[in-house]
Amino acid sequence: MANTILVGAQWGDEGKGKIIDVLTERADIVVRTQGGNNAGHTVFIGPQKYVLHLIPSGILRKKKKCVIGNGVVIDPASLVGEIDGLAKLGVSVNGNLFISETAHLVFPYHRELDAHREVLKGKNKIGTTKRGIGPAYGDKAARTGLRMIDLINAERFEQKLKLKIKENNEILKAFGVAPLSFSKIHKIYREAGDRLAPFVTNTVVLLHKAMERGADILFEGAQGTFLDIDHGTYPFVTSSNTTSGGACTGSGVAPNRMDKVVGVMKAYTTRVGEGPLPTENAEISDLLHGMGREFGATTGRARRCGWFDSVATRHATMVNGIDEFAITNIDGLDTVNTIKVCVAYKVGSQKVNYMPSDVEVLARCEPVYKEFPGWLTPTDKAKSYKELPKKARDYLEAISDLSGSKLTIASVGPAREQTIFVD
């Protein structure tokens, strides 16, 4: 396994949670490196569905250590709720969950700011989850944020929180929002801090000591490449680095200690929220939604769907240094007669084979398609790559080649056993 970074090669929701869960069997430690509870990883084990927001998917395998890294922003109350929810399903985190002492915190004023800023944008809204993630990262960049190390120090936390509540109530007043109660927030966060304190540690030291012992580490990303704050479809992005570099800064493990980057992508394209999606298509959206697929794990929102966009995934391969692909949701195309793949964009009279950085230009891009015959055969029971229909194999190999790397995992359903390792 060695040290492996797993990233989304599209706009998020690529099925990373399932692939992480499968790969964790070969890893000793799983590290979440960025994002907050605006992300959701869904894993099916038998008939049981698990939806995780902050805790790495590796928690579902006993004796695997799970780390929430310094690059994550944490809503303490939400994290406690997630721990309690897992406990009800028979999953204990005691002894195998570790939280970075320098991870930043999300507060109610962050959520209020998130929601009201979105309203002000009107038709130019981003499509945020309103979980306060952006404003929390904003405080981090402004060097005014509170961290886990503050939360578990009762006296320091009270002093710092008073100042932050006072400051943000003045800002919220401009939005016409009633002032937030310091005592109410302090009580909730103090209780959450007491619950979380046993898990808080210096995770950078923990990870480096593990590597010295020869441990294999899997670095888990949230969202996808084109939601990256630097390399995504800005401003319709999240507020952290969702690309492979974020795994290093969000964990404290240097780039030269990483061995491999695995990119996860669907056999088609989806995104949640606003912003350009060149291959968006009503026909495939209706098909997938009609199957009960493509609804957000965190918000329940219907995802926007389109044909596979190899221009975008080629860019993702370049930015992330992707060595291998895991392709998911192959079975979603089992009934499609003719499958389209975007191989270039057309902007006016110009044909381009790269992704424009300007979202206004990207919004004007018209996809240039290549067509592939559908296999029109169920794939969800396939146990090996050879058992997949030849047309399905041809399609998977074509989109991997167009995207610039090799296929190593094919997923034909949400369950662990619906995962095929490709030789």
Give Rg in angstroms. Answer: 21 Å
Low-confidence stretches: none
* Overall pLDDT score: 94
Strand element count: 20
Q: What structural class do the secondary elements suggest?
A: alpha/beta
Protein described:
With 423 residues, this protein is of the alpha/beta class. It has three domains: 161 residues, Adenylosuccinate Synthetase, subunit A, domain 1 (Adenylosuccinate Synthetase, Chain A, domain 1), CATH 3.40.440; 93 residues, Adenylosuccinate Synthetase, subunit A, domain 2, CATH 1.10.300; 156 residues, Adenylosuccinate Synthetase, subunit A, domain 3 (Adenylosuccinate Synthetase, Chain A, domain 3), CATH 3.90.170. Strands 9-7-5-2-10-1-11-15-19-20 form a ten-stranded mixed beta sheet, with helices on both faces. Strands 14, 16, 17 and 18 form a four-stranded mixed beta sheet that branches. It has a two-stranded antiparallel ribbon with strand order 3-4. The longest helix has 21 residues.
Secondary-structure blueprint:
Blueprint: E1 4-8, H1 16-24, E2 29-32, E3 41-45, E4 48-52, E5 65-68, E6 73-74, H2 76-88, E7 97-100, E8 104-105, H3 108-121, H4 133-141, H5 148-151, H6 154-174, H7 182-196, E9 200-201, H8 203-212, E10 217-220, H9 244-249, E11 260-266, E12 269-271, H10 282-290, E13 304-306, E14 308-309, H11 310-320, E15 324-328, E16 338-347, E17 350-352, H12 359-364, E18 366-373, H13 390-403, E19 406-411, E20 419-421
Parallel strand pairs: 1-10, 1-11, 2-5, 2-10, 5-7, 6-8, 7-9, 11-15, 14-16, 15-19
Antiparallel strand pairs: 3-4, 12-13, 16-17, 16-18, 19-20
Helix pairs in contact: 2-7, 3-4
